Each structure stands twice: as C-alpha cells, then as structure tokens.
C-alpha cells in the first residue's frame, strides 16, 4: 500500500443551473489500493459535497454505481485504482441516458422497458406443494443470465439503442431470455410476442458492446442470439 496523487476529471452537470456538461478537475492524495467509489467518496466528503453519484451496497450487487471511467463502463465499487495504468481518471455518467445531476442518470425508461418483458415467473400449471424443483442441467441454461444486476452498463453501451431509443435494449432482452429459458416458466408465448417486434430482439445487430461493458462478464450477445433462434422457431 502506498500513497498516490490523483488527477480526477469528473463530468459535472446540473440541468437546473448549467447550460451544458463541463469537466471539473480534482487533485487529491489517496492510497493506491482504493476503489473508484472510494475516490468519489473522498471528493464528496472532503473536497466538494455538491458532487452527485449513486451508490448503495459497495459489493457489486445493487448495480447503482455504474459509470464510465477512462472510457469504459464499470461498477465504481468493484473497480480498483490499480486497474488503470494511470493516476489520471476521467469519470462520466453512463452514456445514452438523460443526466439528472452529475453522475446520476435517469433510469425510469430503462426499468419501464424491463417491466414490458414481464420479468417474473408466469405459472399456468399447478405448482408443487413444496420446492419447485429444477434440474441442474435446466438451471445451467439460465444461471449466468440470472446474475444480471440491472446496472444499465450494457444498455448504455449499445449503438442500436443510441440510434433508436425505443429499442428494448440488451438488459431487458437478457431478462426475457432468463425467463423464456427457465424450465419452470409458462410465459414463453407472451414474452416472444413482446420481443418479436421491430423494437425488440431484431434491433440487436450482434455488435458485442453489451458483452464488453457487462461488469459481470455475462455473455449477453450469445443469449440474445439464442433468443433470435427461439423467436424464429416460434413463428414458423
Ligand atoms: Fe452497489 Fe456498486 S454500490 S453495485
């Protein structure tokens, strides 16, 4: 552990008072084993209390601290300073979303799209009295997709969404995959009807940005490709 001097540029914007976003630079000294969230906390608590950003769990679970650091989408709480070969940081809000203030973006539309794909188990058959068993093989099909923490990193990095804001986006489609391929679920037809649309799965052009941006390393593009096959089979 050693002390390092940091030069941190943060994109600031308050729509109530600023005409457009601007860069503000902070110089600070910290330990070299801290996270990006620690750096933001140091700025917020000891240098500039007006800086706005989201955080909650500090454990890479809640997804609220997603932001862009030195050009890539990361979770601030799990990303260490040592992951950047520089003591200069450029921190911006997730691209593609409206800025509420500084690093806090408006996720209302993101969660509205998630709601559209019916993100819960739909059961039409009688449910068992006790556990609803699933074989390990069936669980394997959805295990990785179910690890999504809805941080928005994938959706904000998707060029198809930048071009068309009505596109459902990778996070909502990944959630659709998670339930459509769940052996216990009976809502496949409803969900395929929803995603088999010009603003649904066919807007995915297999660009792979979502996979690169995912802090949980979920193979999103691969799962969306399986959804395309399923949607095609279903409509034949
Ligand atoms: Fe919850 Fe970072 S604070 S994921």
Short description:
The chain has 236 residues and is of the alpha+beta class. It contains nine helices and seven strands; from the N terminus they run ββαβββββαααααααα.
Protein described:
- 33% of the residues lie in helices and 16% in strands.
- By secondary structure, it is an alpha+beta fold.
- It folds into 2 domains: 3-105, Beta-grasp domain (Ubiquitin-like (UB roll), Roll), CATH 3.10.20; 108-235, Alpha-helical ferredoxin (Fumarate Reductase Iron-sulfur Protein, Chain B, domain 2, Orthogonal Bundle), CATH 1.10.1060.
- The strands form 2 sheets. A 5-stranded mixed β-sheet has the order 2-1-5-3-4, with helices on one face.
- Helix 2 runs parallel beside helix 6, helix 6 runs antiparallel to helix 7 and helix 6 packs across helix 9.
- The relative contact order is 0.13.
- Bound molecules: FE2/S2 (inorganic) cluster.
- Residues 55-58, 60-65, 75, 77 line the site of FE2/S2 (inorganic) cluster (FES).
Note the main attributes of this structure.
236 residues; alpha+beta; Ubiquitin-like (UB roll); Fumarate Reductase Iron-sulfur Protein, Chain B, domain 2; 2 domains; two-stranded antiparallel sheet; 9 helices; 7 strands; 33% helix; elongated; binds FE2/S2 (inorganic) cluster
Residue stretches low in confidence (pLDDT < 50, at least 5 long) are none
Query: Number of domains in the coordinates?
Result: 2
Order of helices and strands: EEHEEEEEHHHHHHHH
CATH T-level fold name of the largest domain: Fumarate Reductase Iron-sulfur Protein, Chain B, domain 2
User: What is the topology, as strand order, of the major beta sheet?
Assistant: 2-1-5-3-4
Q: How is the biggest beta sheet arranged?
A: 5 strands, mixed
This entry's quaternary arrangement is single chain
**Total beta strands:** 7
Radius of gyration: 20 Å
Percent in strands: 15-25%
Just give the CATH class of the largest domain: Mainly Alpha
**What separation lies between the terminal Cα atoms?**
61 Å
Shape: elongated
Q: Helicity, in percent?
A: 25-40%
From the helix content, strand content and strand pairing, which structural class follows? alpha+beta
Ligands in the structure?
FE2/S2 (inorganic) cluster
Number of helices: 9
């Amino acid at each position: 552990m050693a002390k390092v001097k940091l030069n941190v540029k943060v994109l600031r914007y308050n729509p109530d008072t600023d005409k457009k976003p601007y860069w503000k630079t902070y110089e600070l000294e910290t330990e070299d084993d801290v996270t990006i969230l620690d750096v933001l906390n140091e700025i917020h608590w000891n240098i500039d209390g007006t800086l706005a950003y989201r955080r909650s769990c500090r454990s890479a679970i809640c997804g609220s601290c997603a932001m862009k650091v030195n050009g890539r989408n990361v979770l601030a709480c799990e990303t260490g300073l040592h992951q950047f070969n520089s003591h200069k940081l450029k921190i911006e809000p997730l691209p593609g979303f409206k800025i509420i203030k500084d690093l806090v973006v408006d996720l209302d539309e993101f969660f509205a799209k998630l709601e559209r794909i019916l993100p819960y188990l739909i059961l039409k058959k009688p449910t068992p009295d006790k556990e609803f068993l699933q074989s390990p093989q069936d669980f394997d099909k959805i295990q990785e997709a179910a690890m999504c923490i809805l941080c928005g990193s994938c959706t904000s990095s998707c060029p198809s969404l930048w071009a068309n804001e009505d596109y459902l986006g990778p996070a909502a489609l990944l959630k659709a995959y998670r339930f459509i391929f769940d052996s216990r679920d009976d809502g496949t037809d409803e969900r395929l009807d929803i995603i088999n649309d010009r603003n649904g799965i066919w807007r995915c052009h297999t660009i792979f940005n979502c996979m690169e941006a995912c802090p949980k390393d979920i193979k999103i593009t691969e799962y969306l490709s399986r959804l395309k096959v399923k949607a095609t089979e279903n409509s034949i």
